Amino acid sequence: xxxxxxxxxxxxxxxxxxxxxxxxxxxxxxxxxxxxxxxxxxxxxxxxxxxxxxxxxxxxxxxxxxxxxxxxxxxxxxxxxxxxxxxxxxxxxxxxxxxxxxxxxxxxxxxxxxxxxxxxxxxxxxxxxxxxxxxxxx
Amino acid sequence: xxxxxxxxxxxxxxxxxxxxxxxxxxxxxxxxxxxxxxxxxxxxxxxxxxxxxxxxxxxxxxxxxxxxxxxxxxxxxxxxxxxxxxxxxxxxxxxxxxxxxxxxxxxxxx
Lengths: 138, 110
Description:
The complex is a heterodimer. Chain A has helices at about 10-30, 40-45, 50-70, 75-80, 85-95, 100-120, and strands at about 125, 130-135. Chain A is mainly alpha-helical. Chain A has a two-stranded antiparallel sheet with strand order 1-2. In chain A, helix 1 packs antiparallel against helix 3 (about 50-70), helix 1 packs across helix 5 and helix 4 packs antiparallel against helix 6. The model of chain A is unreliable at about 125-138 (pLDDT under 50). By secondary structure, chain B is mainly alpha-helical. In chain B, about 80% of the residues lie in helices and about 0% in strands. Chain B is built from five helices and no strands. Chain B is flat and about 45 Å long. The mean pLDDT of chain B is about 85.
């Protein structure tokens, strides 16, 4: 994996934290909403928790571009999948949700799959008139 | 509830995929704002499904389920722009499918 400099732990930590918080606030807003159908959505929009995501979206975008300046996508992308297990743990402790081992294993597979999709292929370079060589960033 | 739940989950993932494709298309064509508008439309429509989903499904399950959209985006990129599906991507798609099946097999949350 290529790392241009030191891994930007703090921006990644803040990015993952805001993603987790966004999902938690969505759930809190749901729990405080009532009604069915349109009434449910009207009740939801009135909850300030919902607007956290809207406010943090520009921050998340800025953080992501900042992270990609410091490290490669193939390194940063898998790191962001940490938000999934952190959200699951938060759901267990904050909302008392019970997640079976099957769910945990499935979620880990999904995380691994997302990380694998985000990994960039090794770059190929051509030497004029010579065979193609592959540079792998280390 | 079973079939209706799965259909809504599929709809959510498809809308998320359409949103990503729309925004990506906005950078590739001259119809910048049309595609951005479409992306925002897909996002807002998907939000309705998302909030419904987390009202009936535990958050700890809904979030990894939602990540299934990454798989659809990779497949859509192949279909729309003929982007190459690398070994990594194919393995990733397989892992996501396996993970989603495992999570859906545990129907205690339905």
